[in-house]
Design brief:
With 300 residues, the chain is α/β, with parallel strands linked by helices. It folds into two domains: 215 residues, P-loop containing nucleotide triphosphate hydrolases (Rossmann fold), CATH 3.40.50.300; 61 residues, Alpha-Beta Plaits (2-Layer Sandwich). Helix content is 32%, strand content 28%. A hairpin with a 2-residue loop joins β1 and β2. It is globular.
Length: 300
């Protein structure tokens, strides 16, 4: 049995004269992978999601979801999709919506939905009409509906839209839980700091073209420093020859080559100065995003 959850081969998509996905767009996603789809507004991220799900038909190329074409309803068994914009009947309650969904998908338990809603701090809203809720409350309910139980694959298009910081934190925890339980997660979000905490792969789309697809660890470059956490940063700085910058309990120490890191760790360990952490200073996801979106061709 293949480990490939999603296979996109040579597709393209236009809407009139607008190129949503450029000719030859290809990508594979493995089972259990947590993939961020990143790019500027209008880059083609949502179009890609919709094409994989069979909601938009590509002009060229092929797509398979668990070995089946999107036109086959069986390809969407165990698959959930939260679009960026979602509208509920104003008269319905979350419990009613969950039961309606289950009449179609037959794959969950109501108690799992209740538990998910409670974890998203909206368990008290399950019998309130959706028309009586704020945008943030409806968004939490939507996330609960799409992530309860153990879905095989989850597509999340801006899941934190309209949420306050507390709500965004709860959504981030929910996505992390899905990843931990082995779900395949496809996430489109502009909140790069949050994406960085839950996704291990990223695809960057620019004007409908896939310009990078790799593990985040492999895309992130070494920035020439090591960050050492220690209660005695000045003592450690002196031991290392006076180089580096001290800020609170951290010493940022310059390191010309990443390959020299193991030797530095040995020096710090033999310094006699207590330390609680040492790590290479690498690019953040925001750094990577800006570098790639500014047109750099070498993204390895």
């Amino acid at each position: 049995m293949t480990d490939t959850a999603i296979s996109v081969k040579g597709i393209s998509k236009r809407f009139g004269r607008t190129v949503a996905l450029a000719e030859g767009f290809s990508i594979d996603v493995q089972k259990g992978q947590s993939l961020a789809i990143l790019g500027a507004n209008g880059a083609g991220k949502t179009t890609l999601m919709r094409a994989i799900l069979g909601l938009a038909v590509p002009d060229t190329g092929t797509i398979s979801l668990y070995g089946l074409p999107p036109s086959d309803p069986r390809s969407r068994a165990g698959v959930r999709y939260l679009p960026e914009r979602i509208s509920f009947p104003k008269w319905a309650t979350p419990i009613q919506m969950y039961r309606q969904f289950e009449r179609v998908r037959h794959e969950g338990r109501e108690i799992d939905f209740i538990h998910r809603a409670e974890s998203l701090s909206c368990g008290d809203l399950l019998n309130r009409k959706l028309g009586k809720m704020s945008k943030g409350q409806r968004q939490r309910i939507a996330v609960a509906l799409m992530t309860s139980g153990k879905p095989g694959t989850v597509f999340l298009d801006e899941p934190s839209s309209g949420l306050d910081p507390a709500g965004r934190m709860l959504v981030r925890s929910t996505v992390a839980e899905l990843v931990d339980q082995g779900s395949t997660v496809i996430l489109n979000s502009h909140l790069l700091g949050e994406v960085e905490q839950v996704c291990d792969w990223a695809s960057f789309i620019h004007n409908g073209t896939l310009v990078a697809h790799n593990r985040l660890d492999d895309l992130s470059r070494f920035k020439g420093n090591v960050i050492i956490e220690t209660p005695e940063p000045e003592d450690l700085k002196e031991f290392l020859g006076g180089a580096g910058i001290v800020k609170e309990k951290f010493l940022t120490y310059p390191l010309p080559e990443e390959s020299e890191f193991p030797k530095l760790v040995e020096r710090v360990a033999g310094s006699g100065v207590e330390f609680t952490g040492i790590q290479l200073h690498r690019e953040s996801l925001e750094d990577i995003f800006m570098r790639i979106m500014e047109g750099e061709t070498d993204v390895s």
